[in-house]
Amino acid sequence: MTLRTRLFLTSAVIAVISLGVSAVVASWTLRSQLLDRIEAELALETRLVAEFLTRDRSSLGTLALDRAADALGERVSARVTLIDRDGVVVGDSVEDGQALVAMENHGARPEVEQARESGSGMVMRYSTTVDEPLLYSAVSVSHPSIAFVRLALPLTAVDEQLDVVTQATVLGLLAALAGALIVAWMGSASIGRRVQAIAATAHRYAAGEAPMASPDRSSDELGVLARALDQTARELGRRVDELSDQQTRTRAILRGMVEGVLVIDETGRVQTANESVQHMLGIDGPPVGRRYVELIRHPEVIKVLASALEGEATPQEEVALNTDPPRALLAGARPFTTDTERGVVLVLHDVTDFRRADKVRQDFVANVSHELRTPLTAIKGGVEALLDEATDDESRRFLDIIARNSARMERLVSDLLRLARLEAGQDPLNVESCSVPSLFGALRGELVALADQKTQRIEATVGEGADVVHADPVKLHDAVRNLIENSVHYAPEETAIRVASEEREGLLAITVSDRGPGIPDADLSRVFERFYRVDRARTRDPGGTGLGLAIVKHLVGLHGGTVSAANRPGGGSVFTIEIPRGDVDGELPHREA
Ligand code: ADP
To answer: Has this prediction a pTM greater than 0.85?
Structure first.
């Protein structure tokens, strides 16, 4: 059913109901007013007739009384009945002779009983005598032969009058109804047309047509709705344009990126993948919508994505791809959550060229260091021989300088070679159960002479549960020795250098602390870089090579551990090595470090 028909039917039903109710109320009001008037007139006539009769107070016979009733009945518009005290009808304007005598006793008629009790009575009821509804009015009379005068008016006349009025009212209402229906039809047609126009506009917008100004300029709700629709369509269009601009820009950025970017949703389906990632991982065909496990053939990358999908923010990891030629990628995956979705974004950096260059550098350093060793040994040997034979002080002084510097150079070359071997993975771990007290004891024994030169003490403490560790004893020894040597060099005389071990949630922590100058906060993380020195003027010369802490970092890293530097609150530095303790249960150390 169209809106227009529905609106029209609703208005028509309302019009019919309201006009019908008005007609019923009008005819009911009219009838009751008419009856009230007729009742008042009949009561008045009854009293007039009663008054007229009481003028002649002489006792009359039935015949005379009936004639008087007939005469009065002709003068008034109603039937006149005269009733004596016993209720016997003694005169009637309608019945005469035998019929009058045969009339029932009227003493128990309701109007007569009312008149007997209160002087007057008015009742509307059906008359058995004349067989039609009548309005009866009775009054009591003080007359020797008559006790009550009753006037009866047939209500057919009232009904006829009412019918006429009702007919006129109904005709009027029908005309009003017809008018109302025409107005309702025209009104609903106009509203229907405007709603249809708005619906058609909405359909056009839904089909993607450009918004245009609505022709409906009226200020009512429909006009406001039509204009709001145009405005909404314009606003939506603007936002869609903005979004598509943003999307184009994002696509261009992703396409221009050297890094590979892959976005998956929480079900593991690819949402975005730029050209670089497809090239790096060798993905064929459009990746969007496919599951990453079916798409990516490299288990290392799958592992990184899987752990990020489980919500772990894993650090960047270098993965070696078994491709031809092999590639090295730095993979970082981070989980993300927006208002509507969750997923993971994976970023891949291709570090193959960087690794290749680093390898060339490492090889170069290793080769140069190796090549320098032989001439250095020759120089050292030569100088030592010359020193043995030198007699004058001047020559000895110069030969001493050469000997010191060639020894330093030898240390440098040896550190460089060690670092190169560690970086190249040529110095593998030989893990075994090591005793921490033995390690500390051996180190004290080796370094006590060095410490004594500066009247320093080396104090070692082994914490509870921190006396055994699974590690390469030589490498752990070298790492801790390097830290103690540094402390001895940088801390002032007559101070204590503390070496302590401690168990920290499955890790063994070895700390070396001193009362030296400490390290500026900005340099704390950089001291482990090759040749990094906090303050070149302060650094001892010619002892240090600037490679000690870099070697420590590598040695500890091989164990899967970390080394860090910090400053002590009261001054001095503290270096901490943390390595996993490994499976050390029940086993006693059998090798001394
Ligand atoms: P070096 O051979 O110069 O000691 P390292 O790699 O061992 O080289 O140390 C790097 C730098 O860190 C040092 O030059 C020094 O400035 C600083 N450093 C190392 N240990 C200490 C320490 N215990 N106290 C203060 N500074 C230190």
So the answer is: no
